[in-house]
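Quick one, T. Sequence first:
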Amino acid sequence: MISSVSSVQRRPRAWAVRVRPILWALLATLAGGAACSDDEDEPAACVDGGGPVAGPADTHCQAAQEIGQCVTGAAAGADEEEEEEEMGIFYGREADDDDCKYHIRFDNTCITQNEPVIFTVQLTRKTDGVAATGAEPDGPEIYLADDPSHPSPSNDFAALEGPPGTYKIGPVLFDRPGRWVVRFHFFETCSDIPEDAPHGHTAFYIDVP
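Structure tokens:
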């Protein structure tokens, strides 16, 4: 009888040993899913997280601007003064750049205060829809919308490209709640003076809870 009881007691322990790692893995998966959506067809979404601001779609481009060769500031002409350029701030996850050369669409990891965020940006040329490669957008401009003197504390960005024309930009830190502006710059080493310069930029509103 004692032997029978002992045998019964050992079975649950062996079962628990085998199941415990599976249970921990399942809980970790559920926890990750609660924080962010991993649906490849949907942008990342977080519980109590921020992100792009809903608003009117961008319609500022009536035609596509041709893109010429990259020239440096010196090659563009030292005596040519650069005019003050009007730069827009757009809603949602996609828009054309300010000069109507590119179309930009982005996704992001979960946006919460003081947590690193990665933006995945897709850049295509408006003239032919081809991926814009080699843009090196590793210098985003990030600041509070109602206080442009307060930038993001992060200042060491990477912009890994892959697949062609798709860039993972970050890490970005938002150290205050509120509405922020994130302006992506492309082909920054090229002068922005020629009308057809590859240099481009566009900005989006981002809410941080």
